[in-house]
Design a protein that fits this description.
single chain, mainly alpha, 18 helices
Length: 685
C-alpha cells in the first residue's frame, strides 16, 4: 500500500464532508422566516457579526504577515541555510494555516447567522423542527472545520512527506490566528453580554432579549463571534496540532498512514452520526445531542478496528487512539455532570443562591475547582495508558502512542463541533423569538433548546481543553524529537528538575496562563464599563426608549461598534505577552528552560481552563434553572444572585477559559519551531 493512500482517502472524505455540509446549509436556508421583524433583527445580527469579523481580519492580517516574514528570516536563521527556498515555504505554510483557520470560522459564522432566524421561526412548528434547523446549522460548521483541517494537513503531508516542520508551520498559523480570534471574540461577546445583563436585568428589570436594550443585538452578535468563529478556530487548531505532533513522532517509525486513517474514519463517522441526531416532540434535546455523539463514537470504533485488521496496522496503535477517545468521553461526562441544569451541582448552586450572591460565587467556584479533577485524571490516564499500551513496541512507539491518544480524542471532533455550534445558534434563536414577539410557546421551545445548548458548549469546552492538554503532551514529545535531531543527543539525558534553568522555566510557565487570563478578563471589564456608560446615555437621551414607545429604537450599531473597537484593542496584548514570554525564556534559559516552561504551562493552564469553563457553565445554568421557576423564579433573591454569578462566570467560560488551551498550543508550537534558535543563541542554556 502506497504511503499516499490514506492522505488521499482523507482528502476524499473531506470533500464528502463539504458536500454534506452544503446540503445542510441549503436545507436550513430554504426554511421560511416567521415575520419581517425577525428578518430585520436577524439582518442586524448578521451584519454586526460580519463587520466584526472583517475588522478583526484586517488587524490579524498584519500580525500574520509580520510573523510570516519573521519565520522566513529566522526558522532557521537565513544566514545559516544554504537555500532560502525552505524558509519561504515555511512562511507560506504558516499563512496557509492561518487562512484555512480563518475560512473555517467564516463558514461557521455565515451559516450560524442564517440558522438562528430559521430555528426561531421553526420553533412555531414545534421542538422537532426547531432542533433540526439548529443542529443542522451547527453540523455545517463541524463538518467544514474538520474537513478543512484534514484537507490542509493531507495536502502539506503529500507535498512535504519527509519534513514535518512544514506541518508545524501550518499548525502554528492555525493556532496563532485561533489565539487572537478566540480572545477577541471572547472579549466582544462578554462585553456585550455583561453590559446588557447589568443594565437590562439588574437595573431596569426588563427581559434578557428586550429590543429596548441598546446592547441586545451586540449580545447576539457576540454569540457568533465568540462561540462560532472563535471556538471553530480553536478546535481547528487543536486538531491540526495533534496531527502535526503525531506525524513528527511517526515518520521515523513509518506509521504516518495510521494518523490519516484514524482522522478520515473519524470524519466519516461524524458524517454518519449527524443524521441520527433528532428529537421527537416532548423529547430531550440534550439526549438527542448525546445520541448523535454515541453513534458517531460507535461507528468510529468499528471503522478504525476494521481498517486496522484489513490494512494490517498494529493493534496497539488502535488501542492508544481508543484510550484517548475514552478520556474524551470521561471529560464530557464530567463536564455534563457539573454544568447540566438537570444535575445536582447546578441545582445546589441555584438553591444556595437564595442566601445571596456571595454564596453563589463561593459554591460555583468550589465546584469549579472540584470539576477539574476528573478531567485531569482523564488526561493523565490517557497519556499513561497510551504510553504503556505501546511501550512493548519500543520507547519511540510509546511516545507516539501518547500523540495517537490526542488524535483519537479529536477523531470525532466533527460531531463535537456540531453540538457546540448548535449552542450559539439556539441562543440567538431564543433572543430573536423574544425580540420579534413570536409568543410564549416559541420562547419556551427555544429556552429548552438553549438549556441543552449551554450544556453542549460546556462539554465542548471541557473536551477542547482536554484535547489541548493531550496534544501539548504530544507536542512536548515532538519538541524532544526536534531537539534530538538538532543536538544529536536526547534532551532527556540532561534533564534535571532541580536544574535552576529548568526550575526557572517551569515557574514562568506556571505563571503565564494566570497573567494571560487576567489580561483578557481585565479587557472585558474595561470594555464592558465603557459599553454600560453608552447604554445609560441612550436610555437618558432617547425619549420614549425606556418606556418602549412604538417606533422608538436604540442605536444598536453604536454598541456593536464600541464592543468591536474595544475587543480589537484588548485582544493583542495578552497573546503577544504569551508569545513574548516563550521567546524570552528560550533565549535566557535555552532548551532545558523551555522544557520546564512547557511542563509548567500545561499543568497550570489545563487546571485554570477547566476551572473557569466549568464554573462559568454552572453559574449560567443555575441562573436558567431559577428562571425556569425554581426557588422563586424571575425577580427573586435567588434570581438576582444567579445573575451576578452568571455575570462573573461569563468571562470565565467564554473568554479566558477557552482561550487558555489555545495559548498552551501556541507556545508549544513556537517552542518546537524555534528550538534551533534557543539551542544556538540562549544566554545561559
Amino acid at each position: 500500500m502506497s504511503w499516499a493512500f490514506w492522505p488521499i482517502v482523507a482528502i476524499v472524505v473531506s470533500f464528502g464532508a463539504f458536500a454534506v455540509g452544503f446540503y445542510f446549509y441549503q436545507y436550513v436556508k430554504k426554511l421560511p422566516s416567521a415575520n419581517q421583524d425577525i428578518d430585520r433583527f436577524g439582518t442586524l445580527i448578521r451584519e454586526g457579526s460580519m463587520a466584526f469579523l472583517k475588522t478583526e481580519t484586517r488587524v490579524l492580517s498584519v500580525f500574520v504577515f509580520v510573523t510570516a516574514i519573521l519565520i522566513v528570516l529566522f526558522v532557521p536563521p537565513i544566514w545559516q541555510t544554504s537555500s532560502i527556498t525552505g524558509n519561504i515555504l515555511m512562511g507560506i505554510c504558516y499563512v496557509f494555516g492561518a487562512v484555512f483557520s480563518g475560512m473555517a470560522g467564516l463558514v461557521g459564522m455565515q451559516v450560524a447567522t442564517v440558522a438562528n432566524v430559521k430555528t426561531a421561526s421553526a420553533a412555531q412548528r414545534g421542538l422537532t423542527h426547531a432542533y433540526r434547523a439548529g443542529f443542522r446549522g451547527g453540523a455545517v460548521m463541524g463538518l467544514a472545520i474538520v474537513g478543512s483541517c484534514l484537507l490542509g494537513s493531507s495536502i502539506i503531508y503529500l507535498v512535504f512527506p519527509n519534513n514535518p516542520s512544514f506541518l508545524l508551520a501550518f499548525s502554528f498559523g492555525a493556532s496563532s490566528l485561533a489565539l487572537f480570534a478566540k480572545a477577541g471574540g471572547g472579549i466582544f461577546t462578554k462585553t456585550a453580554d455583561i453590559a446588557a445583563d447589568l443594565t437590562g436585568k439588574m437595573e431596569l428589570g426588563i427581559p434578557e432579549d428586550d429590543p429596548r436594550n441598546p446592547a441586545v443585538i451586540a449580545d447576539n452578535v457576540g454569540d457568533n463571534v465568540g462561540d462560532v468563529a472563535g471556538m471553530g478556530a480553536d478546535l481547528f487548531d487543536s486538531n491540526v496540532a495533534a496531527i502535526a505532533a503525531a506525524l513528527i513522532l511517526a515518520l521515523d517509525l513509518n506509521q504516518a498512514p495510521f494518523i490519516f486513517m484514524a482522522s478520515a474514519m473519524g470524519l466519516l463517522a461524524s458524517i454518519i452520526g449527524v443524521f441520527f441526531s433528532n428529537v421527537k416532540e416532548g423529547g430531550s434535546p440534550g439526549k438527542a445531542l448525546n445520541r448523535g455523539t454515541y453513534i458517531t463514537t460507535g461507528v468510529f470504533l468499528i471503522l478504525t478496528l476494521a481498517c486496522s485488521f484489513i490494512f494490517q496496522f498494529e493493534l496497539r496503535l488502535w488501542g492508544a487512539a481508543m484510550i484517548g477517545l475514552l478520556a474524551g468521553t470521561i471529560i464530557g461526562i464530567s463536564s455534563e455532570y457539573f454544568t447540566s441544569d438537570e444535575g445536582k451541582r447546578v441545582q445546589a448552586v441555584a438553591r444556595i443562591s437564595q442566601q445571596g450572591p456571595a454564596f453563589t460565587i463561593l459554591s460555583g467556584f468550589s465546584y469549579g475547582l472540584l470539576s477539574s479533577f476528573p478531567s485531569l485524571i482523564g488526561i493523565a490516564g490517557a497519556a499513561l495508558g497510551a504510553y504503556k499500551i505501546c511501550e512493548p513496541l519500543g520507547t519511540e512507539y510509546a511516545l507516539y502512542g501518547i500523540a495517537l491518544s490526542a488524535v483519537g480524542m479529536l477523531s470525532i471532533i466533527g460531531m463535537i463541533t456540531a453540538n457546540d455550534a448548535y449552542g450559539p445558534i439556539v441562543d440567538n434563536a431564543r433572543g430573536l423569538s423574544e425580540m420579534s414577539g413570536l409568543g410564549e410557546e416559541v420562547v419556551r421551545v427555544t429556552d429548552e433548546l438553549d438549556a441543552a445548548g449551554n450544556t453542549a458548549k460546556a462539554i465542548t469546552k471541557g473536551f477542547s481543553i482536554g484535547a489541548a492538554g493531550l496534544t501539548v503532551i504530544a507536542l512536548l514529545a515532538a519538541y524532544r524529537e526536534t531537539l534530538t535531531n538538532i543536538l544529536g543527543a536526547d534532551i532527556i539525558t540532561g534533564f534535571d528538575i532541580l536544574d535552576p534553568l529548568v526550575f526557572f522555566g517551569m515557574l514562568v510557565g506556571v505563571g503565564v496562563p494566570a497573567v494571560f487570563s487576567a489580561m483578557l478578563m481585565m479587557g472585558v471589564n474595561r470594555n464592558a464599563d465603557r459599553l454600560v456608560g453608552e447604554i445609560h446615555r441612550q436610555f437618558k437621551e432617547i425619549p420614549g426608549l425606556k418606556e418602549g414607545k412604538p417606533g422608538v429604537e436604540p442605536d444598536y450599531n453604536r454598541c456593536i461598534d464600541m464592543a468591536t473597537v474595544g475587543a480589537l484593542k484588548e485582544l493583542l496584548p495578552a497573546g503577544l505577552m504569551a508569545i513574548g514570554a516563550t521567546l524570552l525564556v528560550g533565549f535566557i534559559g535555552g532548551v532545558y528552560a523551555i522544557a520546564g516552561y512547557l511542563a509548567g504551562n500545561i499543568m497550570s493552564g489545563v487546571l485554570l481552563a477547566l476551572l473557569m469553563s466549568n464554573a462559568g457553565g454552572m453559574w449560567d445554568n443555575a441562573k436558567k434553572y431559577v428562571e425556569a421557576g425554581h426557588f422563586g423564579g424571575k425577580g427573586s433573591t435567588a434570581h438576582k444572585a444567579t445573575i451576578i454569578g452568571d455575570t462573573v462566570g461569563d468571562p470565565f467560560k467564554d473568554t479566558a477559559g477557552p482561550s487558555i488551551n489555545t495559548q498552551i498550543t501556541v507556545v508549544s508550537l513556537i517552542s518546537s519551531l524555534a528550538a534551533g534558535l534557543f539551542a544556538a543563541f540562549s544566554l545561559f542554556g
